[in-house]
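Can't paste images in this forum, so I'm doing it all in text. The chain is below; anyone willing to post the predicted structure tokens underneath?
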Amino acid sequence: MTKELDRRTVLKSTAAGTAVAALGGLSTAAFASGRQTIRVGLVGCGGRGTGAAANTLDASPDTTLVAMADVFSDRLEGSKGHLTQRGDRVTVTQDDCYVGFDAYKQLIARDDIDMVILATPPHFRPIHCEAAVAAGKHVFMEKPVAVDPAGVRKVMAAGKLADEKGLSIVSGTQRRHEACYLDCMDRIQNGEIGEIVGGQCYWNMGGLWSHAPREEWTDTEWQLRNWLYFAWLSGDHIVEQHIHNIDVMNWAMGSHPDRVTAMGGRQSRIDPTYGHIFDHFACDFTYPDGRQAMSMCRQAVGASGKVEEHIQGTKGRAITHSGGTRFEGGVDWQYDKANPNPYVQEHKNLLASIRGETQRLNEAQRVAESTMTAIMGRMSAYSGKDLTWDETLNADLDMTPDEYAFVTLATPRIARPGSTKFDDELWGTTATANANG
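Text version of the structure:
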């Protein structure tokens, strides 16, 4: 893995300084090469945030978790209890814990934090990324990085500011850091399966967790705790989950698509516990040179699973999935080398970038484009309209609620293809109307 990364994405030793300078130089928060502690703050203490914090501790003996923030105190305390089992590299005390909608501001304002992990529900990613970069922090942010075009544009702007400040940003699209994918994509780009003519990608699976409303919860709290099932928080599962596969297709194609035709619906998620999102999508993405990629995702209890990408070339086909890649249909090759944990490797690469040991990494623009590709697919499926990249990226769609507070909050409408506008915020329905679609 190290050899592949060195050859493809990093410049070692004296060359590293030149490469970093060309990209805007090191920030004042960056570290010289060598064993030097990087102090980390965690924003978003759910399962993925806890996992990401553990991953960055595993990535280097010179990382320390010093602060944590979450909207809910029980989530924070549960995460803290899990992470403090790792010993003295977690120094979080009660004074280092921040709770509430503005908790991220208190954490990011600390001068002793070098890097922040952003792992709240995706809706909050743009404002958290913007604040972290403005404060001069390096960033690890989970995917996706937005749920609507307004958020995507905010992340793109934050990425440009990070370049000006010399800050490093890595996103949680871990396939971009996985050895088997890197080797496979290198071979594809070297022409081993010929010219790429198209592809397909899939994330089909069974069901996921959900939380029914509770009497003691406000509408806001229920939606936040059940965030997967509300597009304003998750982006719908095509954005929250299927972005992994869509990102691989953009990687293989060398760009984002410029138009999409999509469909989707809600056949198995008829219980109000599942909010208003769809349970299946199918998208036909067309790239600027006319090549097409078909995308399919489904979440339904009892349904078959398939999570992989197919990249079709004129000489053969690449089949890729986490943990393994291969060629077939004319070219015989299969990845058979070590494949280190990509969830840890992405943090290793970020930490090396922060310390100035490699070329500086800034994945904000790339992951914003992959996020927008998935959002474009959702907007097309929700509306039943063929859409272009420009009209969706520039759409005046911002699904932010009127306020961040624990109040009565309308359940968003279920989209109805053919009548829902592609830039509809989907707010303002009654429970009865929502049940009727």
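The mean pLDDT is 91. The domain at 2-176+343-363 is CATH 3.40.50.720 (Rossmann fold).
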